[in-house]
Each structure stands twice: as structure tokens, then as C-alpha cells.
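INTERNAL AUDIT FORM
Audit reference: QA-55
Scope: verify that the stored structure record matches its stored sequence.
Auditor: D.O.
Record contents follow.
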Amino acid sequence: MATVLVADDEKNILQLARMYLQAEGFTVETAGNGREALEKVRIAKPDLLVLDLMMPEIDGWEVCRRLRKESDLPIIMLTARGDDVDKIVGLELGADDYMTKPFNARELVARVKAVLRRYSAGKAPEKVLQVGDLRIDPERHEVSIGERPIELRPKEFELLTTLARNPGVVFDRERLLKLAWGYDYYGDSRTVDVHVTWLREKLRESTARIQTVWGVGYKLVEAEPGEAAPARRRRA
């Protein structure tokens, strides 16, 4: 079975998570602060990280930020707060799922299994996606407009890739959250609108367009010949 690293400064959380995950056959490693979590990732090479946001020495946000520069390790974030802004920030940094304390230990086990299933299924090689002059290489995690590479945040990449896999197909916000974020999101779906705004700005020079279908959602299409680029968003 897979190895799960649980990083939290609350010993009762570590003990509870260990007990339930080991009962399901997982190998469990633990860390009591962010610095130890980074060390354990490099030494134990876990298959998934359960990461508390508020930890001493190095907080969970910084741990996630550092790991995403070098690894696609699946991450489930934990927090004592239920603010939507925490969820959006955590997911924007590249977390795969999000749980608010106090949580049900059985639900944690179920989410660990679900994230690992999605991760394993996603390991099969995927072909390069092309919409107009927009080129997306899911394996290399690269995006370019013609020959010019563009930099995307982790969830911008996931959202754009989801749309590019089905060009011309309209997705509502809830479906995009489930496909791009990889789980059923309970909260405000405005995070999709925010990411679409960011993507449109970065795709201004591309012939690929993210179109709004009012009252439904979004779709990715190739612009018609001669169609002008969308007007640049004016800053306040």
C-alpha cells in the first residue's frame, strides 16, 4: 500500500490519522512542523502528504509552495479555519484537496484513497493538446502560444487543460471545479471566474479563446479568422 505523510503540530491529529490510515493498510509517517515535513518528503518519499496549514517553523502554505517547485506529490491540506479565502489560496498553491478541522477520520481516509486513485489514473501518457495556436503538453506541464512559452499557475494549468481536452464543449462552474480541482468543492464557485480572468489575460495573443456562455459556463474555442483579440482589462 501507499505511504502517507501526515504533517500537523497537534499530536492527537497525528495519532488519529495514523490509527485510521494504518487500519486501511497504509504506511504512515508523521511530522510535527513544516521543516520536518519537507525533510520527511525527501527521505521517506511518500505517495501523498496530508498537510496542516498552521504549523511552526514553516507553515503549510510555504511547504506547499516549495514542494510544487520540484514535485507533483498529491497534497491534502488541513486547516482549523473554514474561510473560503483559505481554500482558494491553498488550492491555488497546488493542493489536490482540502479539509477543515475538526474532521471525520473516516472521511480523511476516503479522501486519501480518492486522491491517490486520481493520481494513479493520471499517470498514463497524454497526448499534446492543440487549440488554434495554443499548445498544451500535459506530460511536460508546458503551455505555449505558437513558439512562445507562457507561465501558468498550477490551477490555471489544470483549468485550461480541462477545457482544451474538450474544445467547444461548455462546462458549468461546478463541473470545472470537480475536474480541474479534482474533488467536490463545497463553497463559492467564484474561484473559477477568477482563474478564467487570469487565463484570458495570458491568452490575449492566442487564437484560442475562453468564451462565456451566459447562464451556463465556459468553453475553449479557436477564434474565427480576422476576429480581434479581446480588449485588455483596465486596471483600477
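Auditor finding: record pair retrieved intact. The longest strand covers residues 208-213.
Action required: none
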